[in-house]
């Protein structure tokens, strides 16, 4: 895939970039290693100052950066601006909390291990490679960068090839904020060059957010070299509605949960599993609300849903819908691409899905919702857990027993009760099963790329 900005609203190529040569990648990796030697000895106070300065730059430059994001990957402008401010919040969160998260932890009873003192200490690993996707091109990168830099690591960013201008903006952000030269750099390389970077002994760990095949490849390459990995590989999140739920709130949230970011979010609700007692009413309201969404230019404030980010992404989504329809699914609204330039796909609701439809097991990355009728709570849990994914989930109920039942029953990295799944700096983020392993954000995220060193003193 060429490293280029191709505007998904028009399908036209705005800018192209030459990939970094092997020599340039080597130079940048050397800079990252040198920066690590400097950064690991700086205080948390200094790192926090630099993180806050980076956050200030993000906020000050949000309008221009948001337009770049829209032109590169097509999300509505207001959502792009919100992403940037959320990223600034994430930087400030780690500026405020990194020192506490990584503080030495003394053993309460050192005599039990024959010591006068015993404790554990978190220390940075070194250069970490981040392989990041295009769908949240600032937030995805900075939810890695903020904890990694706060801990004293340095980062190399291999961003998606369709968001090179965003990658280059991030390349300069931390240097302008005061971090040592080389602390965080972008590598303009294709996916075929990633294994070579992983092979470099100066690179100590890898984190990837992306597809399951990409995760398998990175995990295999890193595992062969005994390097730590954190993987977030997408999801097909269930949105479960039970008879006791506030149906008005559930419907309103369901529309946003499926179509935010033009439906291109790993934690977007994708499968709507509704108890039979409220299924017909939910389906009627939900379908009507989806059909009413305004599809158009993402720079227009009136637009609810913009284009998909890539032509291949739209083709993949259309294939899933066409396959479901061929196998008996009913299209309640949408079901195809509008006749216009760009990579748009009409928001779609499918029902009566056969078990052999690909969309039952595969992630639909775009504004397509799959409706399921559940006979009872047990059936709802069964349908929710029938995919290989386990990223997040949403359950709508006002029955405390049902709430506890589904919190226990769902195979997922998170359960949101009466709310839409959202990533917060304060909460650990990650999945189980084929959605990956490891955690980002909160205390768990900053500790992933540290050495937990045990110290024993006689």
TrEMBL record:
It comes from the Bacteria. Residues 3-455 form the Aldehyde dehydrogenase domain. Residues 1-12 have a biased composition (Polar residues). Keywords: NADP, Oxidoreductase. Gene3D superfamilies: Aldehyde Dehydrogenase, Chain A, domain 1, Aldehyde Dehydrogenase, Chain A, domain 2. Belongs to the aldehyde dehydrogenase family. NCBIfam families: PRK09406.1. This is Succinate-semialdehyde dehydrogenase / glutarate-semialdehyde dehydrogenase.
């Amino acid at each position: 895939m060429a490293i280029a900005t191709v505007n998904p609203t028009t399908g036209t190529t705005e800018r192209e970039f030459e990939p970094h040569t092997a020599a340039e990648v080597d130079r940048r990796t050397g800079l990252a290693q040198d920066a690590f030697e400097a950064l690991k000895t700086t205080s948390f106070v200094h790192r926090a100052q630099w993180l806050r300065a980076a956050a200030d730059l993000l906020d000050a430059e949000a309008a221009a950066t948001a337009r770049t994001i829209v032109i590169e990957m097509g999300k509505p402008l207001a959502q792009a601006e919100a992403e940037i401010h959320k990223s600034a919040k994430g930087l400030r969160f780690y500026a405020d909390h990194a020192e506490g998260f990584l503080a030495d932890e003394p053993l309460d009873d050192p005599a039990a291990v024959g010591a006068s003192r015993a404790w554990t200490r978190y220390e940075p690993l070194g250069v970490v490679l981040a392989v990041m996707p295009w769908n949240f091109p600032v937030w995805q990168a900075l939810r890695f960068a903020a904890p990694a830099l706060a801990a004293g690591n340095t980062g190399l960013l291999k961003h998606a090839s369709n968001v090179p201008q965003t990658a280059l903006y991030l390349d300069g952000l931390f240097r302008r904020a005061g971090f040592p030269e080389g602390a965080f750099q972008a590598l303009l390389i294709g996916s075929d060059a990633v294994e070579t970077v992983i092979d470099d002994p100066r690179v100590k760990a890898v984190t990837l957010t992306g597809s399951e095949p990409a995760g398998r490849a990175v995990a295999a390459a890193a595992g062969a070299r005994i390097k730590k990995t954190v993987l977030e590989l997408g999801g097909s999140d269930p949105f479960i509605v039970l008879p006791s739920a506030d149906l008005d709130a559930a419907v309103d949230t369901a529309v946003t949960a499926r179509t935010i970011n033009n439906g291109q979010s790993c934690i977007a609700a994708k499968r709507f599993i509704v108890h039979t007692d409220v299924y017909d009413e939910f389906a009627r309201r939900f379908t009507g609300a989806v059909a009413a969404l305004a599809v158009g230019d993402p720079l227009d404030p009136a637009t609810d849903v913009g284009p998909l980010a890539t032509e291949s992404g739209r083709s993949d989504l259309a294939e899933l819908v066409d396959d479901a329809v061929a196998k008996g699914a009913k299209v309640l609204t949408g079901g195809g691409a509008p006749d216009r330039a760009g990579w748009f796909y009409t928001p779609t609701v499918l029902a009566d899905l056969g078990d052999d439809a690909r969309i039952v097991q595969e992630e639909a990355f775009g504004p397509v919702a799959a409706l399921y009728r559940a006979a009872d709570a047990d059936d709802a849990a069964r349908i929710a857990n029938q995919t290989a994914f386990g990223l997040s989930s949403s359950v709508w109920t006002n029955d405390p027993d049902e709430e506890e039942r589904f919190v226990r029953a769902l195979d997922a990295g998170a359960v949101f009760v009466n709310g839409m799944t959202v990533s917060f700096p304060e909460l650990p983020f990650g999945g189980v099963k084929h959605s990956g392993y490891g955690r980002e954000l909160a205390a768990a995220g900053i500790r992933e790329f540290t050495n937990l060193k045990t110290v024993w003193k006689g």
